[in-house]
Amino acid sequence: MSTITSEQYSLMKEKLSQAVKDFGYRFKRYEINYSITIGYTSEDIDLTQMAGFIRETDRFIILNHNTCAVILDCSDEIRGIKAANNLLTHYQSVFFSIPLYLSVVTASNYETNSKMLHELFYLLDYAIKHNMNNILLDHSQVI
Q1: Which of 13, 55, 61, 133 would bridge with 99, disulfide CB 3.0–4.6 Å?
Q2: Whole-structure pTM over 0.70, yes or no?
Q3: Average pLDDT of 100-111?
C-alpha cells in the first residue's frame, strides 16, 4: 500500500481475518450477510472514538495506530454502504478537516473471506493513492 508497508498490511489483514471468522461462518451456514468497512488516516488521532458510532452487534477493530475496521453485522450491500457513510459523517463531525480514507465490502459479493479482505484493502489502497479522502469507496466505483 502506498503509505502502509507490506508488513503492516499483512499484520492488519491477519488481524481482520481472525475477527471475521465468526461472521464468515454465520454467512456460510445461515446466510447472515455482513459488510466490512475500513478507515485510514495519516494523522495520529484516537480512532477508538469511532466505536461509539456503531451498533452493539457490530465489531470495532483497531488494526494499527491509524487504521480501524468495523464489521457491520446483518448488513447487505445497501445497508453496509449506508452504515459506512454514517460512520464517515460522524467521523467528520468529530475530526473536522482530518482526512479519512474509507472503503467497504459486503460478504455476499465474494466467494471467500480472503477475496473479500483482499478487495477491501485494495479499495483502501486505491483511495489513498488517488487522494480520495472523505469519500466512501465500494467495489462498484473501481474497475
Answers
A1: 133
A2: yes
A3: 96
> Residue 79 in 3-state DSSP?
helix
At 75-96, the pLDDT tens digits run 999 999 999 999 999 999 998 8
**Residue 25: closest CA among 69, 60, 73:** 73
Domains of the chain: 6-141 (3.30.70.270)
